[in-house]
Amino acid sequence: MTDAHALVPRGLGPVAVLFFAFLYLPILILLVLSFNANEQATIWTGFSTAWYGRVLGNGDILKAAGNSLTVAASASLMGTALALLAALGLKGRSSRPLMALVSLPLLVPEIVTAVASLLLFVLIGLPLGLATVVLAHTVFCIPFAFLPIRARLQGMDPLLGDAAHDLYATPLRAFLRVTLPLLWPGILSGLMLAFIISLDDFVITYFVAGAGATTLPVYIFGMIRIGVTPEVNAVSAMMLVVSIAFVTLSWIVARRGSA
Amino acid sequence: MGAITIRDVTRRFAGEGQAVLALDGVSLDIDEGAFFTLLGPSGCGKTTLLRIIAGFERPDRGAVRLDGADLVDLPPWRRPVNTVFQSYALFPHMSVLGNVAFGLEMQGVAAALRGERAREALRLVRLEDLAGRRPAQLSGGQQQRVALARALAVRPKVLLLDEPLSALDLKLRKEMQLELKRLKAATGITFVFVTHDQEEALTMSDRIAVMEGGHVLQVGSPREIYEEPAHRFVAGFIGETNFLEGEVAGEGVVRLKGGGRIAAAGLPASGSVTLAVRPERVALVAAEGAQLRGRVLQVVYIGTDSTVMLDTGTDEPFTVRVQNREGGWQPPSPGSTVGVAVPADAARVVAG
After folding, report:
1. Which residue in chain B has the smallest CA separation from A163?
2. What is the pLDDT of residue A38?
3. ipTM computed for the complex
4. Do A157 and B78 touch (CB under 8 A)?
5. Domain span including residue A246
6. CATH number for A126
7. Stronger pLDDT, A73 or B179, i.e. the higher one
8. Domain for residue A146, yes or no?
9. B270 and chain A in contact, CB less than 8 A
10. Interface touch A163/B89, C-beta < 8 Å
11. What is the pTM for the complete model shown?
């Protein structure tokens, strides 16, 4: 411990404070201003929850939120199901080239994926709408769901399968009674991660969403073009809370499973 | 019930560059109710053979029969054979009772009877109080006993044990050795035990098969394996042994390479032979007129015995083991020359 300290220059403690300020200050300002009573989003005049009321009374926002949840739920479920099957099918394969192949889509610029998805849908004549959004989201959900499931599977003692077979379990029953319960934390963690990534996607959605398929991020973008209102702040704050809740849940599930 | 016949079993594994021959035409007969040990160094094929009996591996060639019925085409979940794994392989998401009842559940035993039989198996290994715990909450020795109970609860005809004691400390290992002997007596099941520990094999087994390089070199009782090793490897792997090279020089006499002549039984008519001599079967005598003479290199006191290392003119020192009795004996001083008396039945001709 002391050895590791000796390798680091002294006096950098205050920099860490700056580091956290950079990370969280913008979000903090957004949260505070979402409770601003003033019409002008950036001028504080007093505390109010009126904007939250306005958001919940706005039919368009609720519809966009509904679309977002539908897309996120469908895409994360389908993506996780595919990721699970892929992880099971690829079990025991050499790790490095595989991981590179799976992780590559995470590194491809999102705008490229967006253009490519749009191109594909137009090429095969699929009308743009909620369905295309779900399809495009499923694609980028797969690697996010795959990684925790794969990690869980790799960490599993292969002898557990032998032990189940030895104790008269057919391959299907061994899978249902031993493999699946042990994979469950990885699956849930992947599912929730994929859900959040989908919920918050803007670029790809913007390209492949047709009329009537507006999701919440796309709707917020539209609102901003008119001007930053406290209403935008309030919607964003609500999305933030949902995201944090899911990420925390995903983290807790993954941790409990590994304990 | 529980007799295993293995005939000409061969198994190759794809290795780097070339295939590795894990088992090369192995044949064995394991009697029902026996405590049968497969003994050998790591990589000798003993675990592969066990996994073939369990059904986790398929032999490339050969037959495995249980009470006369061919097992090779049966998957592991249809063989009346159960395994205790080296790492125990307990299901971490189930309680101790859940682990022990798992096989019964898969066999379709009714729930009420299942609980009763699982508890009975836990009683057999004296763990009934811990039925509700998770495996992670148990010590290594307790996990070991759960693994035993889990395999015994389904009442197999044969119990396979893959180095089950190797992860335990010495004291616990001695305890579990006795425990296994007791369980063997209580159940009457055939035990096939895999170990690389020769002492463990000698203490526990009815019969031992010594394996090396995918071959079975010798099968016999612990006494036969120790006292009548047929193969140089067997003699060297089990206990301490002196090897003496020489030429047959007449009826029952061998002229040793390093000088000296000793009597030995079971010699061929002529040619060179290797003799294996146990250090505790020979005695130090006066140098004059002795069959074999050597210069004392070192005397090591090891409690019950002392070992005396001699230079008898060969590459390896010759070891003599002398018991330390009350009243004592005067150990020879290093550098002096002593004689060694080798009884004819102490020098055994070994192959290899």
Report:
1. B89
2. 82
3. 0.84
4. no
5. 59-258
6. 1.10.3720.10
7. A73
8. yes
9. no
10. yes
11. 0.81
Q: How confident is the model at residue B214 (pLDDT cuts 50, 70, 90)?
A: very high
Does A157 sit within 8 Å of B106, measured CB to CB? Answer: no
Contact A157 B76 (CB under 8 A): no
Cα nearest neighbour of A180 on chain B = B93
How much is the pLDDT for A107? 87
Q: How distant is the Cα of B157 from the closest Cα of chain A, in angstroms? A: 13
Which chain A residue lies closest to B154 (C-alpha atoms)? A167
Count each helix (H run) and each strand (E run) in chain B, helices first.
Answer: 8, 20
Chain A residues inside the 8 Å CB shell of B87: 157, 159
Question: Is residue A53 situated within a structural domain?
Answer: no
B55 neighbourhood in chain A, CB within 8 Å: 165-166
Question: Using CA atoms in the order B211, B216, B218, B222, what is the torsion angle rounded to 10 degrees?
Answer: 50
A106, part of any domain? yes
Residue of B nearest to A165 (CA): B77
| Banded model confidence at residue B29, pLDDT cuts 50, 70, 90 | very high
Total domain count, chain A: 1
| Interchain CB distance below 8 Å, A173 and B91 | no
Chain A interface includes B271 (CB < 8 A): no
Residue A180 is assigned to a structural domain of this protein: yes
- Round to whole Å and give the CA distance between A217 and A222: 9
Q: Which residues of A touch B78 (CB under 8 A)?
A: 168
Phi-psi region of B2 (alpha: psi -120 to 50; beta: other; left: phi over 0): left
Find the range with the poorest average confidence among B42-51, B163-172, B215-224: B163-172
How far apart are alpha carbons B280 and B282 in whole angstroms? 6
Q: Which chain A residues contact residue B54 at CB under 8 A?
A: 162, 166
Among chain A residues, CA nearest to B83: A166
